[in-house]
Structures are given as C-alpha cells and as structure tokens.
Amino acid sequence: MAQHYRITLLPGDGIGPEIMTVAVQVLERIGEKFDLVFEWTEALIGGSAIDATGEPFPAATLEACLNSDSILLAAIGGYKWDSLPRNLRPETGLLALRSSLNLFANLRPATILPQLIEASTLKRDVVEGVDIMVVRELTGGLYFGQPRGIFTTETGEKRGVNTMTYTESEIDRIGHVAFQTAMKRRKKLCSVDKCNVLEVSQLWRDTIIALSSEYPEVELTHMYVDNATMQLIRNPKQFDTIVTSNLFGDILSDAAAMLTGSIGMLPSASLSHPGKPGVYEPVHGSAPDIAGQDKSNPLAQILSAAMMLRYDLNQSAAADAIEAAVITVLDQGYRTGDIASEGMTIVGCKAMGEALLKALG
Q: What is the pLDDT of residue 341?
C-alpha cells in the first residue's frame, strides 16, 4: 500500500529552481521504486517572494509549510536584492522560516567521498576518511538576539548592535540533539565555544557539561572556536560530532564543507521537535552568476532530499538508494564543473540528473 507525503517545495532564487527540478525527478523515481506518493506544493521564499509579493516570507508560504510532512528548500538571495532594507532582504525570509517553524537544530554532515578526494584543496592524507557532523543551534544566539539594529547616538554617530544571548533551555535542547547524534556515530562530541571571553559561552559550556552526565558513553571535549577553525583544516579527522552556537556553527560548517572539495556536495537538515516538519537544503548559496546556464551541481540538493526521507519520512531504504545512486554516478566519472578533475566526464545540472535517474533504474 502506497504511503502518501505532503512536501512543500521552496525553489527560491538563482540556481534554486534548476536543482529543485532535478531533486523532484529523483524523488519521483524513488517513489515508483518504494511505493511512495508525493503531493507537491510549491511556494515562494526569498527574492522570488519579494518580487511577487513584496515580502521575503509570505503568510501563504508559512501556511503551506505548516501543512506539510516536510519541506525541501533550494537556495535564496542574489545581488539583485542586496540593496534592500534588512527587513526585506531574502535572508530575512530564511530566518523567519527557521523561527516560525522552531527549527532549532541544524545538522550539517561533511563527509569525504573517496571519489572526490582529489577535488579537495587539502592533501589526501589530511582529508581521506573525514566524516564530521556539525550540529548547529539555529534559532538563537547572535542572529536572533535583541536588541539589534543600527542606532544613532546622542553625538550623532551611528552604532550597530547585535546581541548574542542563550538561555539554559535553548542550550539544553540542542545539547540533547548533539549527544543523541554522537551516540549514533562514534560517540565523540566536541563542544565549541569562546568561554574565555564571552559569558554566554561560559553558560554554554557549563550547560553542556551538566548534560553530559546523561550520556556517559559519549566522550565530551571542548574547544575554543578560533582553535576549532584551525584544527578543522590542520587535522579534521580528530572530529566526529561538533555542537556549537548559531554564529560559530555557520562559520565552522562552511569551513568543514570545503574539506570535501566543494560546498556544492553538502546537504543539511534543520529540525524541530519530533512530528514537526523539518527543512532540508543544500549548504551552498543561490550562485546567481551561473543561474540558468545548466552549470549548477544538483547533488547537494539531492542528498538533502535523501536526508528528508531519512529524518522526516522515516524512509531509510529510499534514502540509502539515493545516496548509493550518487556514489554510482561519481564512480562512473560524471562531474559538474565545481568538482571536476582530469579524466572525468563534465556534465551540467540536467545531465547529472539524467545520470542519477539511470543509476536508480
């Protein structure tokens, strides 16, 4: 008996629509193989929403997301909207999406595939075997703290303000996700903070330490964010699971992404509480400079779809099939330009999708 799922698609801007098209094709083929029926609802977010409605996260989009089993997001933003006021920029729509759905936990894997070791800018002996999961707190910290804004002082000087703030409960809930994630991996968790200078980081460290007593099997370590950034490049294999705040997680996960050779290969999952829809999206941006040229790499979007199947829809076998198809296509030598190397077959977004469909059978 077929299982039915309501999926909201947020193609967004730039290369978003083209990589989303490929992901939907792959999911439709997976549905045929695993008796899954997807009901698609497409909605606006980011720059496309601004152009159509005047706001980056329309109420109709929120309603569609709330009525879904899961949400697949492509990419938002572009030069076109950079000069708009902060509250009308595409990125504000993304923050509103995360806040409205209470997507407090962001999972960003950075795994080196053997086929892509040569695409990394680091030496083989540094990156071979790297398999890291960054657990980033997503709805608190510097990106959401109040007060924030640009103010004029009594002397007429402008003053920019952002507030980094966390409550014990916010740290506690992301800590549980991180420890539980580590339990499913190699039972090593590194908490990254800056408690030598930031009080909010001291609370972060104290709370994570207190929580660790509930997970005695997990080896907990701590690292300052500046050292962690250096260590990710110097010796990335020392890490398994990393947990950190919103700002630090944004920076560290992008640094980890480049270990793999291209940010175009990495998916992510943004999760709320069990039973609530999550948002699955590639780590990369909208790449407006190559939009519409069939040059984009759809693999991160497709791997994000696999994460959606695994985490929100509990369809692990279907997720495995997609991930295996990606490996097959890479083994066959197909590469988009961002992961190209000598002797490989360079293809565009559409052709990569066609190769994946063939690999799925």
A: 81
